[in-house]
C-alpha cells in the first residue's frame, strides 16, 4: 500500500479538501502512474453532490487522468517506466462477456468498474485522479502520443472519447451534417472532432455569446436556440445531432431538425427525468439514442486521431486549491472550456 495526497469530498455537497488515501501495492499486471494533470468533468460535480443518486464518501473525483508510468508489475508487457499514459472513466471490467471481448468494456454486461465512486473487484473503494498517484491494471491504461501535451490530453480521456465514440458510430464525416448542442467541455471537443472527421458542423447554443469561439474551433455555422427562427430555418437539416448538455431540452423541437433516418444522440445526462413525445420520432424515421464513453481500443484510437490532427482540449490550468471555485464556475458556464488540475499542487 502507498499513501498519497488527494483532494476529496468528505460528504455529499461538502467542499473538497486535501486528504490522504491509500493506493494498493503494484500487482503483477499493474501500472503505477505519477499523475501530472487531472481534468474536471461536470460529472464530477454531479457525483460529489449526489445529483445522480446516492454516492460513496469520502470521494476522490477525477476520470481525466494524464501522467507518467513510475513502476510496473512483473507481468506488465504494454508499458515501461517513463511512458506517457492516461486513464479514463473505468479501471476494470469482467473481461469475459461479449462486450468486453469486443473491446466495448464500457458496456460490460456485469458492469465495468468506474475510476471513482465505485467498488473495485477486491472490495475496496475506487479513488480518482484528483491525487498524486494511481495504480491501474495495464489493460485499462492508454498511451498518450508524443504529439499531445499531457495537460491538454487529460480531458480527452472523458470529453474526447465521449464525443468521438458517437461521432464515429453514427458515421460523421464528409457529406454529413452534424449539429453539436452546447459548447462546453464536451461540446467544444465534439466540434473539433466532427470537423476533423470532415463533417459540416453546426453549433446549437442558447445564445451567440460563444459564436466566435465555435467558428475558430471548427464549426461552419452557429445558431442560438433561444431564437424560435432557428428551429424554423433548420427543420430537417441534420444527419446527426450530438447533445452534450446535461439540462432537459425540448426534444420534440430538436428532433424536428433531423433529416430522414437522422439520429439525436445524448451524451449529457440530466439529473432529473425527461419527457419524450413519441410522435416527434415518427416523422422521417428519426432515432433518439445515447452513448457512453468508449472502450479501451477506441479510446486509444481517439488519442491517436487527436494527435494526428493536433486536437487537444482548450483548458484553464488551476491549482488544487482552486477546485471548489472551479466547480462553481463550471455550474455558471464560466470556463473555456475545461479546467485541468496541476496535480503537483496537491
Provide structural commentary.
The protein is α/β, with parallel strands linked by helices and 346 residues long. The chain has helices at residues 42-48, 98-101, 150-153, 159-169, 185-197, 211-217, 228-233, 251-255, 279-282, 296-309, 323-331; strands at residues 2-8, 17-23, 30-39, 65-72, 84-87, 90-92, 113-114, 133-137, 142-143, 177-181, 200-205, 221-224, 238-243, 258-266, 287-290, 315-318, 338-342. Strands 3, 4, 5, 8, 9, 16 and 17 form a 7-stranded mixed β-sheet that branches. The chain has a 6-stranded parallel β-sheet with strand order 12-11-10-13-14-15, covered by helices on one side. Strand 11 (200-205), helix 6 (211-217) and strand 12 (221-224) form a beta-alpha-beta unit.
Quick structural overview:
By secondary structure, the protein is α/β, with parallel strands linked by helices.
SSE blueprint:
Elements (H helix, E strand, L loop, with lengths): L1 E7 L8 E7 L6 E10 L2 H7 L16 E8 L11 E4 L2 E3 L5 H4 L11 E2 L18 E5 L4 E2 L6 H4 L5 H11 L7 E5 L3 H13 L2 E6 L5 H7 L3 E4 L3 H6 L4 E6 L7 H5 L2 E9 L12 H4 L4 E4 L5 H14 L5 E4 L4 H9 L6 E5 L4
Parallel strand pairs: 10-11, 10-13, 11-12, 13-14, 14-15, 16-17
Antiparallel strand pairs: 1-2, 3-4, 3-8, 3-17, 4-5, 5-9, 6-7
Helix pairs in contact: 4-5, 4-10
Radius of gyration: 20 Å
Number of strands: 17
- General shape: globular
Would you identify the regions where 5 or more consecutive residues have pLDDT less than 50?
A: none
Helices, by number, come to 11
Summed over residues and divided by their number, the pLDDT gives a mean of: 96
In sequence order, what are the helices and strands, one letter per element? EEEHEEEHEEEHHEHEHEHEHEHEHEHE
Q: Which class best fits the helix and strand makeup?
A: alpha/beta
Quote the beta fraction: 25-35%
Helix coverage percent: 10-25%
Terminal-residue CA separation: 19 Å
Largest sheet: 7 strands, mixed
